[in-house]
């Protein structure tokens, strides 16, 4: 429940969150999954007048745009709680007028689709803004599979190489040579997937990097690549070095 007038509302299919704009100049982010009644997860404040329209980005689950009677459209990253960018269409009928006499054109409607924001307002015009240069794309995470004959290790890192979580055949309960087997690798990968969900990591785009000839490499890869509705696999690489650079080994010299 909210005791302020709601002027705009938008639901994000990517994150499951709801954003609403209000008469108290505040944007509220709701999580309808938390309980039977949606709760306010966070609030965003920067507009100087009513927030009349809200639209989530269709490509980045953390980004949204808001339009206001203050004549601006603000692009937000909800992780930082501050506007990433402000688009203003404040116009003057006479360029020679003093600044305080500039008439602010109210924004009534905002819609964000892919790399374009559309807005309409009091100036009787439709405005089109490109966002490709000002809005960062979602981060791509890397899933590393290191498969040896003695163990299978699966590690999740961000694009900077920081380790976020890791599991191995040994950490999921397998002993000695069993750690490198097919079943151990499958459970290791499943454990990483479950840990990502438990930590609430917003992993949408991934690269899978495979290294090693261990028997668990195929099991781990299949488990990570076939996760439906969780992430998009952008690239798959295999960094396993080939013995003798892929050539026939040199014959032993006869003495």
TrEMBL record:
<feature type="repeat" description="WD">
    <location>
        <begin position="44"/>
        <end position="86"/>
    </location>
</feature>
<dbReference type="InterPro" id="IPR020472">
    <property type="entry name" value="WD40_PAC1"/>
</dbReference>
<dbReference type="GO" id="GO:1990904">
    <property type="term" value="C:ribonucleoprotein complex"/>
</dbReference>
<dbReference type="InterPro" id="IPR001971">
    <property type="entry name" value="Ribosomal_uS11"/>
</dbReference>
<dbReference type="InterPro" id="IPR036967">
    <property type="entry name" value="Ribosomal_uS11_sf"/>
</dbReference>
<dbReference type="GO" id="GO:0003735">
    <property type="term" value="F:structural constituent of ribosome"/>
</dbReference>
<dbReference type="InterPro" id="IPR001680">
    <property type="entry name" value="WD40_rpt"/>
</dbReference>
<protein>
    <submittedName>
        <fullName>15626_t:CDS:1</fullName>
    </submittedName>
</protein>
<keyword id="KW-0687">Ribonucleoprotein</keyword>
<keyword id="KW-0677">Repeat</keyword>
<dbReference type="Pfam" id="PF00411">
    <property type="entry name" value="Ribosomal_S11"/>
</dbReference>
<dbReference type="InterPro" id="IPR036322">
    <property type="entry name" value="WD40_repeat_dom_sf"/>
</dbReference>
<dbReference type="InterPro" id="IPR015943">
    <property type="entry name" value="WD40/YVTN_repeat-like_dom_sf"/>
</dbReference>
<keyword id="KW-0853">WD repeat</keyword>
<comment type="similarity">
    <text>Belongs to the universal ribosomal protein uS11 family.</text>
</comment>
<dbReference type="InterPro" id="IPR019775">
    <property type="entry name" value="WD40_repeat_CS"/>
</dbReference>
<keyword id="KW-0689">Ribosomal protein</keyword>
<dbReference type="GO" id="GO:0005840">
    <property type="term" value="C:ribosome"/>
</dbReference>
<dbReference type="Pfam" id="PF00400">
    <property type="entry name" value="WD40"/>
</dbReference>
<dbReference type="GO" id="GO:0006412">
    <property type="term" value="P:translation"/>
</dbReference>
<feature type="repeat" description="WD">
    <location>
        <begin position="1"/>
        <end position="40"/>
    </location>
</feature>
């Amino acid at each position: 429940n909210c005791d302020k007038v709601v002027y705009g509302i938008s639901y994000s299919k990517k994150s499951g969150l709801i954003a609403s704009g209000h008469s108290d100049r505040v944007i509220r982010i709701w999580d309808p999954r938390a309980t039977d009644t949606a709760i306010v997860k966070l609030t965003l404040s920067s507009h100087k007048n009513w927030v009349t329209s809200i639209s989530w980005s269709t490509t980045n689950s953390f980004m949204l745009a808001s339009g206001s009677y203050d004549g601006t459209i603000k692009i937000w990253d909800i992780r930082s709680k501050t506007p990433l960018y402000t688009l203003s269409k404040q116009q003057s009928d006479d360029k020679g007028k003093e600044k305080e006499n500039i008439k602010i054109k109210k924004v009534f409607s905002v819609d964000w689709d892919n790399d374009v924001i559309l807005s309409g307002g009091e100036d009787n015009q439709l405005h089109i803004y490109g966002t490709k240069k000002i809005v960062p794309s979602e981060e791509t995470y890397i899933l590393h599979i290191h498969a040896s004959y003695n163990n299978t290790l699966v590690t999740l890192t961000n694009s900077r190489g920081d380790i976020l979580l890791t599991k191995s055949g040994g950490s999921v309960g397998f002993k000695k040579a069993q750690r490198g087997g097919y079943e151990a690798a499958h459970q290791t990968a499943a454990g990483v997937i479950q840990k990502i969900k438990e930590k609430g990591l917003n992993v949408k785009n991934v690269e899978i990097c495979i290294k090693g000839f261990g028997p668990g490499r195929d099991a781990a890869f299949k488990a990570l690549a076939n996760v439906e509705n969780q992430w998009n696999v952008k690239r798959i690489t295999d960094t396993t070095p080939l013995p003798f650079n892929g050539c026939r080994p040199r014959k032993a010299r006869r003495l």
